[in-house]
Design a protein that fits this description.
InterPro entries: DUF6624. The protein has 184 residues and is mainly alpha-helical. The protein contains seven helices and two strands; from the N terminus they run αααααββαα. The relative contact order is 0.09.
Length: 184
């Protein structure tokens, strides 16, 4: 991928993230997600996006706010966040992003979400409480959190709301989803 300007890079990354979200929404709409298995259509989009993001990183470094614009940087994070079949790539992205957070070119919340995703996929407790599972009744609950009594301090440091507020948001989203099912 040869990306000449910030706007070209931003546009390319946003198009990739938009395709990810389009396929995801379509699979939810058709009832194919959620699923116990990694849906082949999602895997295909994710793996294609990872290949393109790897190429961008090799040529230009991490597409942060400065070189990719805010929307492009957020799209790059989403692509890394969804590269669930390639944990080593996720770890590589997190390491690069960490330097960007230190320099102010990457949003701290993006790194927090990615670090937590890596932890939960690796069977470890998450740090920031950004990743959720569902309880036996289908209500969202955070995956296990390391040192939970300090989680709100960690969340605040990266610009996230409290864990209690996030749980409330997630439950409200699930209530809305259930209400929409009832209306169908």
């Amino acid at each position: 991928m040869n990306v000449a300007t910030v706007s070209d890079l931003e546009r390319a990354l946003v198009e990739m993230a938009d395709e990810d979200q389009r396929v995801l929404k379509q699979l939810f709409k058709t009832g194919e997600l959620p699923s116990e298995k990694y849906h082949p259509a999602m895997r295909s989009v994710h793996e294609k996006n990872v290949g393109r993001l790897k190429s961008i990183i090799e040529k230009q470094g991490w597409p942060d706010n400065l070189i990719a614009g805010m929307k492009g940087a957020e799209a790059a994070w989403l692509i890394a966040q969804h590269s669930v079949s390639n944990i080593p790539f996720m770890q590589e992205c997190a390491s690069i992003m960490e330097r960007g957070v230190t320099s102010g070119r990457v949003e701290g919340w993006q790194l927090a979400f990615l670090r937590d995703r890596i932890c939960t996929l690796s069977g470890q407790k998450q740090i920031y409480g950004t990743q959720f599972d569902v309880d036996e009744d289908g209500w969202p609950i955070p995956f296990a959190i390391d040192n939970p009594e300090q989680v709100n301090q960690r969340r605040s440091a990266v610009g996230l709301n409290t864990i209690e507020e996030r749980i409330s948001e997630m439950r409200a989203r699930e209530t809305e989803r259930r209400n929409n099912l009832d209306d169908s």
